Every structure is written in C-alpha cells, then in structure tokens.
Batch of 2 targets.
Target 1
Amino acid sequence: MSGPVFRGGPVTVRPPATTANIGPGYDALGAALTWYDEVELAVADTGLTVELDGEGAADLPRDEGHLLVRAARAAFDRLGGQPPGLRLRCVNTIPQARGLGSSSAAVVGGIVAARALVEGGDELLDDEAALALAAEIEGHPDNVAPCLLGGVTIAWADDVTGRARAARMEPAAGVHPVICVPALRGYTAASRGLLPADVPHAEAAANAGRAALLVRALTAAPELLLPATRDWLHQNYRRPSMPQSLDLVDALRAEGIPAVVSGAGPTVLAFSAMPGTEGVEAIATKVAGSDTFAVTALDVSTAGAAVIQR
Ligand SMILES: Nc1ncnc2c1ncn2[C@@H]1O[C@H](COP(=O)(O)OP(=O)(O)OP(=O)(O)O)[C@@H](O)[C@H]1O
Ligand SMILES: N[C@@H](CCO)C(=O)O
C-alpha cells in the first residue's frame, strides 16, 4: 500500500484551554475556553526540530518525547505513514499542570496538525477517530473532547469498544467563566490518587442529579449554576492537595457565586453574572488577601482546535 500524500505546510492550529468536571460532571463534562496555545507543524526533508516559546519552554523536551510530537506521530501512523521529517514550533500560553487541559491541548493540537498535513486527512481521521486517539494518549476524554470540538461536551467510553465518544452542545449566552489560576502546579495523576475506590450510594445519587442539572444550567439556564455545580465525588477528597483552592471555592459559594475546581486542579473556575472584566469584581474581592491566584474572565470557546492556516 502506498503511504499518505503530504502537504508541505506549515499548518497552524490553535487548541483551546479546557475545563473538565465543572463540579459533578466528573470525568464526563467539559468546556472549551477562550485561551489558546498555537502550534505550527511542517513536513521537513529529514529529522525533527522542535522550537518552543512561552509556558514550559524551559522544561519540555525538544525531541520525540514531546507530548505533541508523540500525538502527531500516532496520528500519522493512523493516517498511513510518517513524513520524512518534521518541524514543530509551539507558542504556549495555557498554564501547565493547573487543571486547564494543557496536556489535552498538546495532544489534540498534534493530532489536528498532523491530519491537516495529509491530503484527505480530515476524512481518513475524522473527529470521531481523532477523539478516540486523543483520549487514548491523554487518558481523560473530558478535556480532549471540548478541546477538539469546542463548546460544552459530555464524554463517555463506548460500552463495546471502550473508545471515547462525545456529544457537543452550545453554551447558553449567560455562561461567563472566570478562572483563578494559582502559582503552584498540581498534577492530575497525584490528584486522582486521593480519590476513594467507593462512595456512599446516597452521595452518588445526589451527584447524578446535579450532573443532569448541570447540563441544563450550562446550555439553557445559567441561573441554576450554583446548585448545578455541587459535587460529591472528587473535590473534597482532593482538598489536602490544594487546600487554598478548596477554601476559595467554599468562600465563593458562600457568597452565592458558582465555583468549582477546574479539572484535577488547582485552578478554581467560577461563573460570573456578567461577561468580561465587570463580572470578575465580586470574584476578585474574594481572592483579594491572597496573592496566590491570577483572575481572568474568559468565554466558552465555541470553536475547538481550529486549523487557522494551511
Ligand atoms: N503544551 C505542552 N506541550 C507539551 N507537553 C505539555 C504541554 N502542556 C502540558 N504538557 C505536559 O503535560 C503535563 C501536565 O499534564 P496534567 O494533565 O497534569 O495537567 P493539565 O493538562 O494542565 O491539567 P488537567 O488535565 O487537569 O486539565 C506537563 O507537565 C507536561 O509534561
Ligand atoms: N476528570 C479529570 C480531569 C483531568 O483530566 C480529573 O478530575 O482527574
């Protein structure tokens, strides 16, 4: 069989930051945010060059071990073969290891860029296949789904194949995310290690009800976000690894502001009543007194990882 036909590129992809769980939607619910990394990938004559700017540039590998390169390589394998060489440039702005889906942005960015470098790539590796591959590599479909598809997503594993699937929804106009990003990093694997094997049935039942309510709140009724973001499955168990984040969640909720831990933390995601900087005031007041968190008002990104130049 002949290999794929490559376009030279470069192609440029903008994968968004994402927030997962959003309270009770543990490992399922997610949303894309208007904060993006930028990935430029081109076919080269030979070898691999990796140029990194911004977040993580000092620490991330510049070889085949780079997460985005690994994801692009896996995508090329699915697309029929590897190019003779690769040139990668990343401009990273999404804070890493903070619960904002930076690893998903790298994985999805690599897959989407690789398929854009192959003639017919969008059909050979469609969004359903790209999602399954991204979840295989990243491990958590609740971040990769909104990163790929944009908007608000529900992810699950197919009962027969185990492959990641997702349903995408449009966010309601009144959903205004505000993120409070701490200086300290937190790693997903460590944060998952704090979760118990079992939870009481009554708490699982309460959580299921709020997760259902959360879908309605995010897509049609933002006024329900406070009750809809209450969780019983993960946040409190994770408190020892990010006490300041949980204290901030508690303080905001006590003021009637919907707030949760973003993904595996330690970023706190709150929802303001108003868009933009006006909306952050009430939240910033609660954060004041601690210089630990940087507060930024965002929107839900209706676009997922888009090819902005090919
Ligand atoms: N842009 C990137 N390029 C390459 N590797 C990255 C990039 N962003 C993150 N990573 C890798 O992923 C690790 C962070 O993954 P982790 O899943 O712990 O955090 P996160 O993806 O930022 O948060 P979460 O999954 O909870 O939303 C980093 O330490 C780094 O090894
Ligand atoms: N659902 C995951 C998100 C991180 O990818 C967690 O909370 O561990």
Target 2
Amino acid sequence: MAETKVKKENMEFQTEVNQLLHLMIHSLYSNKEIFVRELVSNASDACDKLRFEAISDDSLYEGDSELRIEVEFDEEANTVTIRDNGIGMTREDVINNIGTIAKSGTKEFLSKLSGDAAKDSNLIGQFGVGFYSSFIVADKVTLTTRRAGDKPEQAVVWESNGENGFTLEDTTKEAHGTEIVLHLKEDEKEFANDYRLRSIISTYSDHIPLPVKMRKRDEEGKLTEEWEVVNKANALWTEPKSNLKDEDYQEFYKHIAHDWENPLAWSHNSVEGKLEYKSLLYIPSKAPFDLWEPEQKNGIKLYVQRVFIMDDTKNLMPHYLRFVRGVIDSNDLPLNVSREILQSNHVVESMRKASVKKVLGLLEKMAKNDKENYQKFWNEFGRALKEGPGEDMANKEQIAKLLRFSSTHTDSEEQTVTLEDYVSRMKEEQEEIYYITAETFASAKNSPHLEVFRKKEIEVLLLSDRVDEWLVNGLQEFDGKKLQSVAKGELDLSKFDTEEDKKEQEEVDKKADGIIKHLKEVLGEKVEDVRVSHRLTSSPSCIVLNEQDMALYMQTLMKQAGHDMPSNKPVLEINPTHPLIERMEAETDDEQFGDWAEILFDQALLAEGAQLEDPAGFVSKLNKLMLKMS
Ligand SMILES: Nc1ncnc2c1ncn2[C@@H]1O[C@H](COP(=O)(O)OP(=O)(O)OP(=O)(O)O)[C@@H](O)[C@H]1O
C-alpha cells in the first residue's frame, strides 16, 4: 500500500493565539528571560510523563532512560536550543497543543486585557503563556519532536515566526522527545550566552527534580562536546528545610504553578510513621484565571517515590481549597496508581485530611501574624473558602474563623469582619448572628430590612457574594449562635425594646387592623399573609420569606439558569406609621386602593431583587398615579 506522506503544510494559528502572541510580545518586555523557565518546565513535564508511562512499558525509553534537559546556544547563528528526551509529540499532538489554546475561558481572559502593559503582564502571568513565551525573544522558532515509541520517520518539524501561522513537515529524528530552536531577534543576542543562560537556569530551575545540562568548558574557557549539570536537580521537597531559602521555595512555586508572582505562604512537611510522605503546599497570591471554571487545569502534583504520577485537581484537596498548589510525594502508594484508585484509597484519604489541616493551619497563622497578606488572600480566594463550611463539615469551626465579611459595623464593601469580631460586639440580650443576603453590596447595605437594626444599633452581616446563601446554609451557627437572616421568618426583636417601645407597637398594631384586612383582600393569592412590620422605620413595606426559602434574587438567578423554582408565596409586611400607608388608609376609591396595594407589593419585590411577573402592569399603574399627582 502506498503511503501518503504529508511533506509540508501551512496552517493558521487559532485567532486567540494570534491575540495572545501579539499581547505577549508587547507586554512582557521587562520579563523576557522567563521563556527559559517556561520551556524548561514543559520539558520537565514531558520527561515526567514519559517516566510515568514507562512504568508499565519500559520499551518507551528506547534504551535511553536517563531523562534530562539540554540547553545549548550558538553565538554566531544567534540561537538557543532546548532539548528533552521526554514523551515527545505526534503530529496530531503538535497540531492540538501548539498553535491552538485548549484552555477554557481563553476568550473571556483575553477580553479582560486592557492594553496597559504592566497590568496585562500580570494577567498573562496568571493565564500562563508556556510555549508561546518563545516569541518574546525569537523571531523564528523551530520545534522538532517525536513521540516515544514511534518510529524515527514519524517525527515532525513545526516552524513559525509567530505572525503568519506555522508550517508542519515530516522528518526523521533518532532520539525521542522534543527539541526547540529559538532563532533570536537581533536585539536579543544577549541570551545566546553561556553565563547568561546558566544564571537564568540556576535562578528559575535549580530545584526541579531533573538535570538541566549545558556544554562543559575546558580550561581555556572553550566549549567542549561534554555535558555538565548546571542546576542542583534535587527535588526541592525532599531537601531538609534548613537547606532551603525563601527564594528557593518561591522559584520552585513558579515552576510548578506556572505562575509569575511569589506565593503568599507555604508549608513544607515530612511525615513519618504509619504513612510516609512529603508535602509542599503553597497559597498563591493571585487567583488563576480558571478558578471559577467547573474544571481546573492545575492542582497538586502527586509523586510516588519521586516519580511524577499526575496533576490531581480532585482527590488531594477539597474543592474549596482548589487554589492550593504544590507537591505530595508518597512512599506508600503503588507506582502504577490510577485515577480510579486515587478516588477511593485510604492512603490518599489520610494524606488529604492531613494536608487540609496543614493548609487551614497555614491560613490561621497568616490571619493572626500577617493581617495584610491575609486580606490579600481573602480578596482573591475568600469566595472559594466560603464554600468550605458546606463542603467540609469536619473542619467547619476552623474554616468559620477564617471567614471575613462586610457588615453594618464598617458599612464598607471590603470584607474584613470576622465572626469572632461580630460576637464580641453582640448586644447583651442578643442570641443570634444577623445577616442579610442580596445580589449586590449596595442592595444589601440599603435594604429596608436593616432599618430597625440600624436604629437599635444591632450589627448585621452584609452578604452579597453568590456563594453566601450556600455558606449560611452550610454554616448554620458559630460559637453556639445561630445565623439568622433578617429577611426571613417572623422577626422578634422585642427583647431589645423598652416598655415604651412595646406600648407604642401595640397601638400601631391595633390601628393597622383595618388596612391589613383591606390589603389581604386586594392582594389575595399573591401573598401568604400581610402583617405589621417590626423591621421598618423609614420604608413603607417589605417582603419577608419563610426561613427555608431561597432569597428572591437567588430564585431569579436560578430561574434564569433554567431551574424550576417552586414559588412559595411571600409575606408582605407594612409600616403603618409611614405617610404612604397613612395616605392609603384614607383612600375611599377601591380601584385606586387596589393600584396602590399592587405597587406597594411590587416595589417591595423589586427591592429584594426579584423579577416582577407583570413589569408592564407595574409601570402602567405607576404612570397612572403620577399623572394624578401632576
Ligand atoms: N517539550 C515538550 N514535550 C512534549 N510536549 C510539550 C512540550 N512542550 C509543550 N508540550 C505540549 O504542548 C502543550 C502546550 O504547552 P504550553 O506551554 O503552551 O502550555 P501548558 O504547558 O499546557 O500550560 P501553561 O500555559 O500553564 O504553561 C503542553 O500541555 C504539552 O502537551
């Protein structure tokens, strides 16, 4: 059978790659040398993958099992070459991996870029540029690769100038793995230099567990054919802590997390006894771009006896701690551990439990000793941590102490109030922790439900993150004090009332009997009940839900997302001392009263972020009233 061989073909970059390349070249000029780290990281990942696959099939090594990365340069040709004998890529892999961006959320990410180089370079850092960083310094990149186990003739060359797409051509490559030649731009010659490359490698790649080699020099300083290892090549997590400096931990973090910024904190542990493992866990300083995507790309790197097994995003950390990065290296798991085994393995379970404790302990320490950094952490990852009490009952108490909120005490959007702070400010008679949930901070802060609390100077937590309803459901109580929504159920604040207040209230209640009855008749099936409010001081009415009901703005969101929401009827509460209600009481025209009643009800729904069933009807009634006033 005649073999159809593709000689050379031209292909286009995915639109997003073009955009990213353009931005990168223009935003990252102050950080050019990171291309070495990015390419070395990829090479080391490729070696890890081969080592893992070779556990079940060691013919993949093709007789060369000493995994390594080689870095070479040619001053005259103005090139830098980075080579690995890792897993390599097939033609199809190259098309899928290089020239396209498989990351979900890429479009959204690109739309966030502002054109301001400094800001964008930060964002690009979070996104991770990987292979494309080659084009910061090169005007042509040639990548030659062959998948381990394939025939030498199945190799392929990919080439691009970063602007007009790329070419793919079949070739022959004896060694498996990948070689990348960077043809440096005229003004980036400085990188084709022995000293410069060595120093970049030792800065960024000293502690990756693989040797990075460069050509040895002879006594006269001339390059020889021999290779020497230029990084320390020790798996950082296996080193005793006393050998390591902060910078070592920081650079290693950047390598494994594909991040550019230093982490906020880390915890390095060596566990011996029943189980033996080492862990190195980091809290990043910036949320990765995919933190809110359903699936994350990076997570914890699982090693077994120093052999990389897989990036795990599900089994070694709970979902609410999905931002944690690092390495766990076990001596107890079998080398051929699979994803399925990970899901129900008691060794994994124990390591996970202990690692969660480590992370929570690390956060506790930061919250206590380094408030500024903790606030930074909270602003980036607080919403993820808020998923904790619902997800991890066993650590609920500990997580609760780490939570930060906005409250009427500060009235500021920045979440700084702890539950312990709140409890310490509770009134003597107060037994519950009051909160309100709303779609935005402004609507929480300005909610009519808060009026009486402000008057009586009782603090209320202002919750406006999407996850907050889920949080309060999971948390239920703190320090023996129940969390109570100020917008749900009958509110009894009588214990905070003076005798005089109580008497006044009774009179108001009595006086309101007539209008309450009238409103019930008019609103009929729309409401569960109409009653006098003990919540309002300056608004005429508000909506109150049952204890178990989801907040109205959440019901709206769920409906929009296509969920069927059972609609329990709400309670309308009115403030009989409000001039509007007093004016209504005096109304003798039934039709007019009906319009007022509906408007009163609808506007209370609107204030809760609910959607009106008949918005046009509401507007026309309002217009009718306005015309009468004019
Ligand atoms: N040296 C290599 N050997 C084998 N495969 C490679 C190599 N370099 C890159 N790849 C493949 O190309 C893919 C894309 O690489 P790229 O560096 O763009 O992104 P990444 O490493 O997946 O993520 P990040 O952007 O976070 O670095 C990799 O996931 C890998 O599958």
